[in-house]
Amino acid sequence: MKQQKKSSNDVLKDNIKLIRKIKDLPQDKFADELSIKRSALGSYEEGRAEPNKEVLVTISEKYNISIDRLMKENLTQTVDTFLFSGEKNIPYQLTGNVDIKGKNMRVLSITTDNRGKENIELVPQRAAASYLRGYSDQEYIKELPKFQLPFLPSNKTYRAFEIMGDSMLPLKEGSIVVAEYVEDWEDVKSGQTYIVVSEQDGIVYKRAENLLNEGKLRLHSDNPNYPPFLVNVGDIKEIWKAKTFIATDMPDNEVTLEKLLVTVMELRSEIQKMQK
Questions:
Q1: Boundaries of CATH 1.10.260.40 in the chain?
Q2: Which of 83-92, 172-181, 239-248 has the lowest mean pLDDT?
Q3: What is the CATH number of domain 8-105?
Q4: Domain made up of 120-250: CATH architecture
Q5: What's the CA gap between 231 and 170, in Å, rounded?
Q6: What are the pLDDT digits (tens) for 147-184?
Q7: Dist CA 166 CA 143 (whole Å)
Q8: Helix segments in the chain, DSSP class H
Q9: Treating both helix axes as pointing N-terminal to C-terminal, what angle do 38-46 and 8-22 enclose, rounded to 10 degrees?
Q10: At residue 139, what are phi and psi to the nearest 5 degrees?
């Protein structure tokens, strides 16, 4: 079956979203750089509206790319394109990860609502295998169930995963872990819980031990019946830091003073970050 050629509007919206993700900016910050409203940026990225000439000129000048190329060339399919730095063009390989100034850059597919606010996409258990194939495919991500949680900071990207098994009790099978996207894997903190998406082990929810200096993560279960195991960094596709969970049953294991102190310290740290 012959693949349908993308329209100019599809090319433009994909390119705008790509620039923002390569710049590692949430929608509100990127909109500020373009001197437009976040809702307007959301409509551009969803293809519900096209930017006017003034906005196109701003993007062209700020990110050092011609308007013609921005509107006609599908940069998401370009093997050797550019990182839009505003200062100079740095080679950027879109078909894989590339280290630029010591940081692994990745392009993440997201969806937004009609106000331009990022959705939380849900990956149910039955979609775990297909997510490994489609995690970077915009069309696949659009088909996932979506929801929003108003108490989470809006400048982060979140995804929800339905967990399997009993390795992370007291969270039972079927609980949904809502997690924040980790752009820089050096930020993974030992002892904290993450969703790790890897080629070898699929989607797992575990407590991480950072061994990145050895090119690995060691993943631990809270249920002592399950031994820890190693994951090679080269097999990892995505890492998401657990932020909250949704469950039909309340966890039923005992709460120790140590666990309460850890929770209080983590909450205090998160509040301080939000206040800053």
A1: 8-105
A2: 83-92
A3: 1.10.260.40
A4: Ribbon (2.10)
A5: 24
A6: 999 889 888 899 999 999 999 988 889 999 999 999 88
A7: 28
A8: 8-22, 27-34, 38-46, 53-62, 67-72, 128-134, 138-143, 257-275
A9: 130
A10: -65, -40
